[in-house]
Amino acid sequence: MPLPAEFHEIAKRVNNWGRWGAADEIGTLNLITEAVVREAAATIRTGRRVPLAVPLRQDGVQTGMIPGRINPLHTMVAVNFEMFGPDTVATSDDAVTMGLQAGTHWDGLAHVSHSGRIYNGRPADSITSHERAAFSGIEKAGPLVSRGVLLDVARARGTERLPEGHAVTPEDLDAAEELAGTTVRPGDIALVRTGQIQRYLAGEKEAYAFPSPGLSLRTPEWFHARDVAAVANDTLTFEVFPPEIEDLWMPVHALDLVEMGMLQGQNWNLEELSGVCAEEGRYAFLLSAPPEPFVGGTGAPVAPVAIL
Amino acid sequence: MPLPAEFHEIAKRVNNWGRWGAADEIGTLNLITEAVVREAAATIRTGRRVPLAVPLRQDGVQTGMIPGRINPLHTMVAVNFEMFGPDTVATSDDAVTMGLQAGTHWDGLAHVSHSGRIYNGRPADSITSHERAAFSGIEKAGPLVSRGVLLDVARARGTERLPEGHAVTPEDLDAAEELAGTTVRPGDIALVRTGQIQRYLAGEKEAYAFPSPGLSLRTPEWFHARDVAAVANDTLTFEVFPPEIEDLWMPVHALDLVEMGMLQGQNWNLEELSGVCAEEGRYAFLLSAPPEPFVGGTGAPVAPVAIL
Amino acid sequence: MPLPAEFHEIAKRVNNWGRWGAADEIGTLNLITEAVVREAAATIRTGRRVPLAVPLRQDGVQTGMIPGRINPLHTMVAVNFEMFGPDTVATSDDAVTMGLQAGTHWDGLAHVSHSGRIYNGRPADSITSHERAAFSGIEKAGPLVSRGVLLDVARARGTERLPEGHAVTPEDLDAAEELAGTTVRPGDIALVRTGQIQRYLAGEKEAYAFPSPGLSLRTPEWFHARDVAAVANDTLTFEVFPPEIEDLWMPVHALDLVEMGMLQGQNWNLEELSGVCAEEGRYAFLLSAPPEPFVGGTGAPVAPVAIL
Amino acid sequence: MPLPAEFHEIAKRVNNWGRWGAADEIGTLNLITEAVVREAAATIRTGRRVPLAVPLRQDGVQTGMIPGRINPLHTMVAVNFEMFGPDTVATSDDAVTMGLQAGTHWDGLAHVSHSGRIYNGRPADSITSHERAAFSGIEKAGPLVSRGVLLDVARARGTERLPEGHAVTPEDLDAAEELAGTTVRPGDIALVRTGQIQRYLAGEKEAYAFPSPGLSLRTPEWFHARDVAAVANDTLTFEVFPPEIEDLWMPVHALDLVEMGMLQGQNWNLEELSGVCAEEGRYAFLLSAPPEPFVGGTGAPVAPVAIL
C-alpha cells in the first residue's frame, strides 16, 4: 500500500531538505551550536552521572522479531594467554558479532527510506552492501553532545509505565515539558520516557518488544516546531507499535529520519534518570551520546551519559 | 622468563589492592567524585567538541600482529527492504564482527593478568570463555566522564611525532604538564600524545603498529603519585614497543591494569585535540568516554569526546 | 555431583585410550580402512544421492537453550558490486557468523571432557581460547567417508517418531539392525533415526530441542562391541534428554567422545533417507561426511551425503 | 567499460539459458544423472580417500585483496564449562565468522552477474541483502557427488607449477586429458591443477593471490563442449589474473556462472591428489563435494574428498 495523503501532508510540514544545503548529511544535528553546548554545560550542578545504555549481552533486548538484528555474541579469542612464554604477563581478548541496532543505539539517517529517497533527497540506492551508507552514514554524526531534556511522559501522566498501545501525543509532550520546568529549545536532545523498558528489565522480553507504547504520528511536528536535534526513548520500536493507521508502518521513522533528518534513539534505559530528575527537581542536563563511528553505518551502538 | 625483581619493586609501590575494599572491581575510577565532574564541567568555555575515535571500518588499525583481534567486518542484513510490502517505508540494517579492542578502546582491568592474578588479587581463572570476566568486566566502568588533561609530549618536546622507539618518561610527562598549564589531579584522565597515530592516518599501518613510541616502565609511578583515574594515548601498544627491558613484555599493562587497577586507552586520535588545545592555550576539558557496556568484556570500543 | 560408579564401570568397558597409540587423536576413525571404503563403494547400485543436512539459515535448529550456540547470521558484503567500473561483471559476496555446532554437525573429540581429561587421556586444559583444541581438533578427522548403515529405530518400532522421552536401547538397535538386513561392522558409521527432526521440519523448534528422545546410556557398549567409526542421529541433544539418571548429564557424550574416542553427529535429517532405504529395501550405503576442517575445532558443520 | 564483442560471441556459444526449463536454478548440475554417479562409484578400486580442502584458520588464503572476504575468525564460547555443576561432564563450544568464499569453496551461480542478469536470465536484483540469492542460492546445488577427473595441467606440461601469468588454454586441457587417460564426459567434475596453491602452502600468501595462473577466456567452450557439471582449481582467482584482455575483468566467471550455469570451485588443494593419481596411473575418481547448504548463499565452503 502506498503511503497515504495524511503522511505526505505531515511530511511537507516537517521537511528539512535543502535547509542546510544540498550537501548536508547530518540534518538537525546542525542545530547543536557551541552556544547550545555551553548551555548544556551550565546545567551541570551536582556532577552526578547517569548511564542510559542497557548492558550488551547475548540475553539482550532482541527477540528475533526483527530479522538479522542479533543480540551480541561475545566470545573469547584468548584467556590468560602467555603469548611471550611461561610466567610472563598474560592477556585476555574478546570479539563480538552483533546488529548495530541491537542494543541502545542511534538510528542513522540512512536507516529508512521511502519513495526511493533518504534524507535531503538523496537516492536510496546510494546505500549498498559493499559501501553501506555513502551518504549520512552514522559516522557523520560526530561527537554528539548537547543539552538533554527528559520528557517524562509516564510520570507526567501519573503512571509508572504507559499502557501497551499508548501513542504518545503532542499533548503528552506538552505535559512532560511542563513537568520538566524548561522549554525544549533548538539543538536540544529530547529523551521521551514511556517506562516500557521496565518490561525488559523484568525479563519480559517479548512483552517489551510488542505491543509497545511509542511516539505518535503527530509528534514529528512537535519536535520540528522546537527544532530539537534528536529524540530518543525507552522502547524497541520508537513509535507506537502496532501503528495508529492500519498498514501505515513506521511513519514516524520516515518523518523523523527521511523528512526532518533527525536521529532517533531506541532502547535507552531512562529509569534511573527519571528518579534522579524527580529527586533533583530538574530535567535538563548535559547529554553525551556519540555513536560508535561505523563508517557507512545505518545506525550504531551508543553508551549515553546524562551529567547533572 | 619470570618477571624480574625490578618489576616487582615498582608493583609494590603502585599497588592499589584493597584500597577501595576487597569487593572493588573498578580501581582508580573510584577517584572520579562528583566534585571532579563539577570541576570538569567548569573547564567548558567555548563549547567546542572534539571527537577522539578513529572511524570503525575494515581498513582499521589492526594489521594481524595481534592474533584474533580483527578490524570491523561491517555487513548489511537489509538494504532498502520493504518489509511491509511494495511502496512502504523501507529499512536498511547492518551487523558487525570485530575485536572489542580493535579500534579506539579501553582496556578493561581483566585484560591482563600476571602470576595468576588480576586487579585486587582476584584469580585470573575467574575469566572464562563462557562467562568472560566475572570480575572487573568493562561494563563495571560505567559512565566514564571526568576532567581530561592533554599531556602533549610531542609538542612539549618540540616535535610533530616522537621517534619510533621513544619511551615516554616521567620527565616527558612533567614537561607536558608544564605546557598544559594545569596540575594533573586525582580523578583526572590523562591523554598522552605521542603523535604516532599520524602514521595510521597517513596509511602506514605497519609502521603505526611497530615499532612504536609509548609509555615507559617508569610512568605508572608518575600516574600513581597524581592518582589519575585513567590514561589513554595515541598508539596501538600503549607502552613503548619493543619493551625497554629485554624479554619483559607488557610490564606497563601489568602495572596499570593489575597492580593499580587503572584503565588504559589505546588508538585514540589526539591530533585535532592537540591543535585545539594549542590554539586555545588550555589543555583541560570535560572528557566523556564511557565504554560500550559489554558484560564481562576485557575491553570495549569507546567514542570519546573532549568538550572545551 | 561427581560422576556415579555406574558411569565409571561402563567407561572402563568402552575405553579405547592407548589402543591406537599414545599419540592418537582420531580414535575410532582409525577403524575406517581402505577395505571398509571399498565395501562402502560396493553398496552403490542405483546412484541415488540423499542429502542429510538441514539448510543453514537464521531460522535454524537452535533455540537459545545452549548459550552462545547461535544459528547462522548470514549477511551480504557485496550485492551486484561492479568493482571494476560501470557495465562490467558484478559480484555478490556473503559472510556468516555461526556456532560450529549450530546445524548439522559432528562433535569433535575435544567437545567434552570429564575428570580433567579428553580422549586418550590428554589434559582438558590443552583446549584454550587462543589455540582451541590442540589435540583431536575436528580438522584431524580428515576425509570422513565410510560405509553408512541406517538404524531406523522409529520404523523398526512401527512408529513415525519415537516418543518424547524415549531412550534408545541396545534392544532398539538390535531391532533396527535386523530391519536393516546387514550386520553393523567395524568402521561403519551408524545413523540412528528417531524421527525427532520432524518436529523441527514442522516448525516446532522448542519441541524439537527438549524433551528429546535419544541414545541411552547403555548404547555406547553396543557401538563399542561392533567397533563402529562414528554415530549420528536426528536430534539436537544426541542422547535422551532429560537424562535417564537424575543429575547425570551428558553421560553418552562422555562415553562416546572421551572414553571411546568416537565422533557423534547431531541434527542430521534422516527422513528422506528413511524413505529411500525402505523403498529400496537396503540400509547400507556409501556415506560421505567430511567435517569442515576448522583447525582446533571442537566440532564442525558437515553436509553429509548418502550414496546408494 | 562495457563487455566487448568478443565476450558476447563466446557467451552466445556457451549459453545454457532455458536448456533445463525456465524454472531451472542449478544449470549444469542437471547433467549429473544417477548413471554418472554409478560410473563414479565404479572408479573406486583401492579405497584411498584424498581430502582437497585447505584447513580453515585465521591464517587462511585471504590477504585482504577482496574486500570483506575475511579468513575465519574462530573463537571459543565455552572451554571445559561444567554447565551442570562441579565435577560433571564439561563442554567446549566454538563459533566462527568468515566469508563464505574465504577458503576452499564453490562459487554459486548467483555469485556474479552481468548486464543485469544472473543464470537463466533471472534479474540480478533478485539478490538482496535481506533474502540473499532468491534464485540459484548455493543450497540448491544439493548433494554434489559425481565422477571427478583431475586435469593435471602442470604435470602434463612437465612442470611443478605453472608460471605466474599463465592462462590455461584448451590445448593445455587437451594435454591434461590425454595424461588422464580418460575422456571428460557429461556430468563429470573437472579439477584443473596449476600447482599455484604451493605458494600458499609455502606461506607466500600474497604471491598465491596475485598474479595467478588460471583458466583462459577460451576454456568455457572446452568445458561446454564436454558438458561438465562443474570445474574447480587450485587458485584464488580461478581464472588467470590479471586478465588476458585489458579491462575485461572476470570474463570466465561471467561465462561459467552466468551463461553456462556452471559452478566454479576455488582454493582446492590438488597437490596430494596429483601424487596419488600419478602413482596409481589413473585420474578419475568418485568426488564428493556438497557445499554447506547456506540458504541463498552466493557461495559456500566445501570439504571435498576424492575416493579412488
TrEMBL record, chains A, B, C, D:
It comes from the Bacteria. This is Cyclase family protein. It comes from Streptomyces malaysiensis. GO terms for biological process: L-tryptophan catabolic process to kynurenine. GO terms for molecular function: arylformamidase activity. Pfam families: Cyclase. SUPFAM superfamilies: Putative cyclase.
